[in-house]
Amino acid sequence: MKHILPIVLALFGTAAQADCYADYKAKQDDPLRLQYGVAQINGACEIEAAANELAPRLEGAGWILLNIVSVFDENGLEERRDSAGENFLRF
Amino acid sequence: MQAKIFSASESLKAGNRVVVAGISAVVLVLVLAAVVLFANLPDANAFNARVEQLFIQNDDLTAQAELKLLEILAQSGTAFQDTLASYRFVIFVLFVFATALLIAAVAFLVMLIEMNRRMSKIERAGIEINSLVISRDQNTVTLNDFEFKLTEASIETLAVLAEARMDDEVMSGLQIEAVISGRDPSDCDEAAGATRIKRLRDTLGNQMISELLVKNIARRGYMLAIDKDVIRMT
Prior knowledge:
The complex is a heterodimer of chains A (91) and B (234).
Chain A: H1 4-18, E1 21-28, E2 33-40, H2 47-60, E3 64-72, H3 77-84
Chain B: H1 8-40, H2 46-57, H3 64-124, E1 132-135, E2 140-143, E3 146-149, H4 152-166, H5 173-181, H6 190-212, E4 214-217, E5 221-224
Antiparallel strand pairs in B: 1-2, 2-3, 4-5
């Protein structure tokens, strides 16, 4: 057990220090489709920065970002997994 | 006294101006109304926008099922768009109808005014003779719908005058007498022709007045054949 922990830490290590996630709302027009999702943010862990980063990413997939609900670290991931469904860390 | 001059072409021009102005006013008003109406019709996308707003404002509407429900709501709104489009078309058609009807109404109004003007002119002109039929074998003359019985001599005089009128000629008493009697004008008397005219006027005038003005009601007496409202004593 003592040997595995460092490996696990090493595996997630790169992400660990800058782990930042945001849950967002997005839409598609004609017909209107709505999406609630969770995405990892690489830049600053702020709502505004997250919006600037996510909008082009979503647009590439044909979605329009409506708003960022919140930003959080990996502790908040699990509780949002169900709601986000297939959009959990999709973009 | 100067007579009032009515120029037919002038009144026609004024009438045309009124028609053009009226019709363009009608079209303008209806086009304005149509623009205002179409601009104020709810945007077909309003339903989607409302659902989207709902989605943004409520942070706890994040579960998959809730999103699906919102999408279905929006889709039913989208179905309503088609209804709105058909409403728009119906409104447009109704506007076209309304325009046509109002244009017709303006045209009829102008026609009515023109007709009334003409009617009052005719009423003032008194008896206007539209047809004159002379039947020599029955010694009758028919003016419009009135049939008058004349003597043979009077019919002869009237026929001669009618023929002269058709040739746009004016006849003197001498000529009338010459034509009717068949003698040479040098042998005829001006006074004889004048007498024929006087007899014609007497018989025809007498019958016309009795037909048009002083009526004889059988076994009861005489009455003026006019509307009592038009009588005025000064």
